[in-house]
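Course assignment 3, question 2. Fill in each field.
Student: A.L.
Task: Predict the tertiary structure for the chain below.
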Amino acid sequence: MSNSSDTATVIPLDNVDPALVEDLLDRAFEPERRQRTAYKVREGMEWLPALSFAVMDDKDMMVGSIQCWPVALTDDDGRAHPMIMVGPVAVLPEEQNRGYGQVLMSAAMSGIDERAPLPQVLIGDPEYYGRFWGFSNAQTQGWELPGPFEASRLLVRCDNPAVLPAKGTLGPWTR
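Answer field:
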């Protein structure tokens, strides 16, 4: 398969009809996706427009999207540590393995304010997200989620991992 990401155009996700985004997510992950633990982590939150994008192919068809969400890790003392949950990263099944996911992740990660970056968390493949963007599960082994998950797939990226609590529960950030 060719790498089609060279001709891709990234646009803000809030410029896309929400029904098109929902259709893309259903095609990429099945309609049952709403039962996944990641949905419980960000329940009731609105995605962050500055970090959420769509990717269009060379025919101006949306082939992928990424959303980022405000979440928090609440430690054992009840203190909320704000974070950004990355995902879902969705690409149409027939367009996968062409570089669109990397384009979307790079767009979202480049939007993080380097002057005061919040830790970013996601559920995904540690080798893939670690190799390209520095995500790791080394700091997340004591973290809990509001549903089932594979501990090895709970990943975080943080400039200073020492600020991360060793234990806590990830959920919506309600300030």
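Instructor remarks: The two ends are 45 Å apart (CA to CA). The domain at 4-172 is CATH 3.40.630.30 (Aminopeptidase).
Grade: pending
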